Amino acid sequence: MFQATLGSQDVAQSAVNIPEIDWQAISPVVVVFVAACLSVLVEAFLPRERRWSVQVTLSLLTVVVAGLALGLYVNSDAVVGTGGITVAGQAVPLFSADYPALFLWGTLLALSFGALLLIADRSVDGGAFASPVPPAPGGDPVQYQAPGRQTEVFPLALFALGGMMVFLAANDLLTMFVALEVLSLPLYLMCGLARRRRLISQESAVKYFLLGAFSSAFFLYGLALLYGYAGSVRLVDIAAATAGTDRPETLLYAGFGLLVVGLLFKASIGPFHAWTPDVYQGAPTPVTAFMAACTKVAAFGAILRVLTLAFEASSWEWRGVLWAVAIVSMLIGAVLGLTQTDMKRMIAYSSIAHAGFLLVGAIAMTEDGLSGTMFYLLAYGFTTLAAFGIITLVRDGNGEATHLSQWAGLAKRSPLVAVTFAFLLLALAGIPMTSGFMGKLAVFSAAIADGMAPLVVVALLASAIAAFFYLRVIVLMYFSEPAQDGPTVSVPGAFTTAAITLGVVVTLLLGVLPAFALDWASVGGFVS
Amino acid sequence: MTPTYYLLLSALLFTIGAVGVLVRRNAIVVFMCVELMLNAVNLSLVTFARINGELDGQIMAFFVMVVAAAEVVVGLAIIMSIFKTRRSASVDDANLLKY
Known about the structure:
The complex is a heterodimer of chains A (528) and B (99).
Chain A: H1 3-15, E1 20-21, H2 23-45, H3 48-74, E2 83-86, E3 95-97, H4 99-120, H5 153-167, H6 173-191, H7 198-230, H8 235-243, H9 249-266, H10 275-282, H11 285-310, H12 315-338, H13 343-362, H14 367-391, E4 394-396, E5 399-400, H15 410-413, H16 415-429, H17 435-449, H18 453-479, E6 488-489, H19 494-512, H20 515-521
Antiparallel strand pairs in A: 1-2, 2-3, 4-5, 4-6
Helix pairs in contact in A: 2-3, 2-5, 3-4, 4-5, 4-11, 4-14, 4-19, 5-6, 5-11, 6-7, 6-11, 7-8, 7-9, 7-10, 9-11, 10-11, 10-13, 11-13, 11-14, 12-13, 12-18, 13-14, 13-17, 13-18, 14-16, 14-17, 14-19, 14-20, 16-18, 17-18, 17-19
Chain B: H1 4-23, H2 27-52, H3 56-86
Helix pairs in contact in B: 1-2, 2-3
């Protein structure tokens, strides 16, 4: 009974070991978190009229400065790829700025720059965000909100971004759990901030919150069981424990299963996707763009890290399960996407199918699989960001016109928007000359090289099914007569134009000249 | 008294919480069930710390408590805001988004 107390002095002496911090390596994360705290102070102390411009400047500047810090570190004389926060005497950092983390940080910063531009735009109808204060009694709760200058969304977005950056770089499960909450909690709130259609926005926030909390409890129970199995929650210690044979394997399997459920939920894969369509549809569209692009990067970064660093040795035991999950995800996304009549829901099901394709690359467990998956994340993120940017533009009297029938004949009314959206849909479908094709090529060839040909056949089948509903929208836009009282296409403000242009240019560039990004993605693997 | 009993108790609490999330209708009760799951995890962590004879698990339990507290703040804010517009905290009433 007193053993733990007596032993605690030894424990204390060995455990308090000041870690070495490579500040330059983690500078992008530090910049984002410091700016997030500043942003909260701005919200608290600045008068209401000046907040909006200060918040927009601060958050866009933060992302640029963090990107510059990342660029400086990568091009500096220091040894890149092994930095982070390291405990003396241990080879693997606790918090690792290794090559995959650096690549995905760059991806996250670029994507969140685009998403912040969409969030900041209020040229169309005064912006998408409302004060969370409820309307006065007797007012119409569904529609009415004075077009106030809503700025709470900026600090929330910065905290979410910081959490994502930590989530994909953490080398132990506890840091990963805390980062998971730091990225999720602001996202739950951001979902509920829509100015129009408040009921479905709040409904999406409640659904996302309850299911998200449920899944993080699973993640946490997995963490606890793996701690019981390995005696540590560091990924390398878990890997070392799986190499031995004298430990109870029940704990390993149960812990792995629960942990992975939590991760798959965040990445909106397969049978754990139920929240995705509702939340994507209900949340304000700029927030949906942020979630669809950035959360996916963070979640897959963490999945790749956990599978590679902690569970590579036991991969033959879990691979079959993840095969099944990938197949289910691709088929659910592709088949249910066919039946959708709402544009945002359709893109949500497309994202579930894409998550399945990404998982195919992630379970290849080879260098090509890693670099292919990261390239796919980069390509998919920009395409989906621009697609949601376009969705914010097509509007009628009640806000965004997201029903498919309202998009009929859009090409006659606004040829430029139609051709841009058609290009993005082709990229999502994976047509050559777009980034979607190169991403699928990279992922599927890595999977075939690792002996997963049957899975790739299913994936190609799912791509073909999914291509049908993308093409249906293109046919609808070009070969239907526009309705008399159809929606109008708003002239985008400078911010939205910039975000859509960024997405389209990257989609095209990665489709034509993918080599440079693929080279960056394959510079090196995880430090282990 | 072997620590295994505590692990079984923890698994039982976690299961009760998970079943509660699935069957209860009031958002607040669902949320309390999630908190029950988190506390079941805390019990496991502390028990494993005892089995391993080290303090790591106990410190992790503190992290979990802090995170759970933050989650309560955000969760109750969201549930309050939907309650104010709908006058109901039932998860069945919020059904505008489907299929």
